[in-house]
Amino acid sequence: MTKQVLHVGIAQIAPRLADVEANLQQHLNYIEQARERGIELLLFPELSLTGYSLREQTLDVAMPVSHPLFDELAAAAGDMVVSVGFVEEDSAGEFYNAQAMVKNGQLVHVHRKLNLPNYGGLEEAKWYSKGQDLAPCEPIAGWPMHTLICADLWNPALPHLAMLDKPALMLAPVNSAADIVSDEFSNPQGWKTNTDFISMTYGVPLLMANSCALEGNSRFWGGSRILDAFGNCLAEAGGEEALISAKVALKDTREARFQLPTIRDADSRLVLDLLAKRVGK
Length: 281
Known about the structure:
Mean pLDDT: 96
Shape: globular
CATH topology: Nitrilase/N-carbamoyl-D-aminoacid amidohydrolase
Largest sheet: 6 strands, mixed
CATH class: Alpha Beta
CATH architecture: 4-Layer Sandwich
Structural class: alpha/beta
Radius of gyration: 18 Å
Order of helices and strands: EHEHHEEEEHEHEEEEEEHH
Number of strands: 13
């Protein structure tokens, strides 16, 4: 029988830069705390196992999905769904900013970041390859979900494409520093606008997990949040490490998508035809 209500959580942490072992222990601690609170899905921020500002240290922390670390995390997760951020090494010299999902002793899904920012203080395209796929997963029966990593959500086509799969949950692990884009652009306000819009427009509960680390001059501001299918904020973290949680319900998604049928009325054939005209120019 499909669960009608899901207890979801976010572990807002301050990873130690390039210290995978210390970060792993922190993950295991938060997984245990989440289990004690009855959380059924736990989301960590983007690159939670490594920290963000890696640059040349990417080589030191990159790992394949076959790495024993994921076995340890998967065993600790038990029947909880746990999503963690890491640098994935595929073939030699091919690195991805990726998010791995584990449950019941297994790795069940990996999403590779598609939209690599290369502006302001961001230069991910210098270090990582772009992901080439956007696939949903269903680690909990009746709860299909998509993961989009940070700048993925700032390419409007990607959330739209993800929502055409009609997920019941959107996971958004991010690494957002207050002034990393520019002095004028407000990342905290921008992320509130972005996540409010996606959740409300598509009728989808959304979890945004941010880091709260200090890496050099970059202060990651936290502010992780859990939204319901109407775009209402159910839980929000401050600027420090925290475990936040809330319960989201399928009935809310049903009602939200009835009231605002964005997915039903998307008219993908028309969009595809219009896009083809522009790409063909």
